[in-house]
Amino acid sequence: MITGKTKIMGLIGDPVEHTISPYMHNAGFKHFNMDYVYVTFHVTKENLKFAIEGARALDVRGLNVTIPHKIEVMKYLDVIQETAWHIGAVNTIKFADEIEGYNTDGLGAVRGIQDVKSIKGSKIIILGAGGASRAISFQSLLSGAKQVLIANRTRDKALSLALDLNDYLNKDVRAIDIGEELKEELQDADILINTTPIGMYPNVDQEPLVTSDMMHEGLVVNDVIYNPLETGLLREARLAGAKTITGIKMLIYQGIESFKIWTGREPPMDVFEEALAPEIKKL
Ligand code: ATR
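A: This is the predicted complex of the input protein with 2'-monophosphoadenosine-5'-diphosphate.
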């Protein structure tokens, strides 16, 4: 029940109507008997500054940030967590004495993968070089990956990300070409992660960048897309006998990490999973 003491949390983005995050967070608050509510705020680019100032003024305690504000919002925060600063994007804000910015996207993906395979010492290939790729590649290296290879349609973007990663972490990171080089590198890769929108609803029949003939049984394949649950890439992985991880895992774990930042408590995975189940069935 909403009371005079209920604290507000939420999501800012444009659009926000289709998000399934409120189901997770509100179930988490209920689980811990916390007097919080999680709502969505449709915020346009012109209003982003006022939204952050307004949230502070209205004593909002925490926000998630989604497309298209993850980068722009950083200007309006007081402090930014080191990883988020290196990633160059914020998806979680905590309103404390100062306005704090975090990024839980990379951690979400890494935790999803760690459920089936240890990242430590692994060779990872990431498709795409946008915001999600930046978050996941940084976090993979911080979590002990041995090598990260970035394959992107626009090679310059992959090169620039590889440079940023090398500057910060001085690890084995390279940009590779989509095509023969990708095919060759996949032969002894441990983990493949798609961060491009290829195969996302409504383009479910779009040909994935990697097909089953390029995969092997020991490979773990993760798609950050969760609609559809089984993307073209994951179908190919299943055909090749590889292990698959759907985008829902990342969504749940990034949510768990945000929830922890705001409340200091870790909601059980099954609470979030159960809250999402009816929504996932509709996908
Ligand atoms: P996000 O923030 O979700 O990562 P993004 O920053 O728009 O989204 O990045 C999307 C990535 O998917 C980009 O690397 C993009 O490649 P380009 O750098 O060449 O634009 C990649 N991408 C999008 N559509 C693609 C397609 N049809 N084929 C190959 N790569 C694609």
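The mean pLDDT is 96. The pocket of 2'-monophosphoadenosine-5'-diphosphate is lined by residues 128-133, 152-154, 157, 195-198 (CB under 6 Å).
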